[in-house]
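Hi R.,

Here's the chain you asked about this morning:
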Amino acid sequence: MNNDPVLSELELDALTELVNLGVSRAALGLREMVGEQVLLSVPTVALVSAAKAIEILREREDRNLIAVHQAFEGDIAGRALLIFPETKSLELVRAVIGGELPLEDIIELEQEALAETGNIILNSCLATIANMLHRSLKMSLPEILRGEGADFFSLGPVSDTDDVVMFLYIDFAVRERDIRGYIAMLMDMPSLAALKELLGEFIERTVGEPL
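And the predicted structure, written out as tokens:
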């Protein structure tokens, strides 16, 4: 196993390509759910420490955040989070449900709508990456969390300060509502090393193939 599992520029480019494919599939899944065009974009993919991910969220967002959390296991194991500022989560629910519902109705439907949206986005991203790497992953059921970034990144079973976070900023456009959020995938160093190896194999397979 490589003792320095940080991804090279080429490996990060390949991972970004896979993430964008996953997000495109998520947009199709959401379109089926809401019955309307959904635009999702991922301008950047970064590998950062858990502490840095927390710092980014603190700098950019209010402290009140909401997240959809799912664990995944397979050749690569870890936890995936879809994170929104709490105010944007209600916007997302309005967009997903459609129509002008009273606030109390939206709050009542929020958990279910967020869980379903998170499940589509996180599953699409992870399943696409796994499929393109010729691997499979098993995902847990979605769980809704509320709190600050530090609460999300210190979940068990054992919090490891060496965890690496694949951190994605995402933009949504649904029913003319602009919604921003983040996808974070936490992996330990062995999982990152496994991902590096799989990306290397993916690059070897695709080099020389027509685009």
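The first helix runs from residue 9 to 34.

Let me know if you need anything else.
M.
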